[in-house]
Amino acid sequence: MAAAFANVVKALPEAAVESRYMELSEDAAGEAVLSMLEGLEARDALVQQLESVTHLKASVTAWHCAACNRLTEFLNKDCKAEGHTMTKTSTLKRFWTCDHCNARVTTLGVRFPANRCSRCNNPSLEFTACSMYRGPKNLKPAGGTTGLACKENLFATLEQHPEMGKRTFR
């Protein structure tokens, strides 16, 4: 086909072909990158601010039940249903991590945690003060090597599966 139209169509060099809107697309791509970087910078500033906070002073409103002598961050429905007198107070909130299982614990109005860790129930009461920032969750990669439906456990046919191919279904 190229031989039939060789005298009509002339091949242009690759460098000579340019789009009319090349500059606009480059500007748009540059603006998209800058806006993404601005968002990441704002997130980093927030992370730095949260990492510096280890306790909240008087900005936490808590509820104190006079009958149970408990201080809770939210209004306790059981105490309210039983008719206990609940008073709203401002208190100090501190953040802790358990030294055994790394669970996060918060305390209201006390200097140190007085109860055991709710996750591991370790009686040693060893906690370390931490910041308000929890950090990103550790996400497993998409092609993870664990779990029933991971990439390594998916086979096209039943005979290819090392466990199921041996079995006969009747």
UniProtKB/TrEMBL annotation:
- Domain of life assignment: Eukaryota
Q: Name one GO molecular function term.
A: DNA replication origin binding
GO biological process per UniProt = DNA replication initiation
Q: What is one term from the GO cellular component aspect held by the record? A: nuclear replication fork
Instruction: Identify this protein by name.
Output: Uncharacterized protein
Native organism is: Gonium pectorale
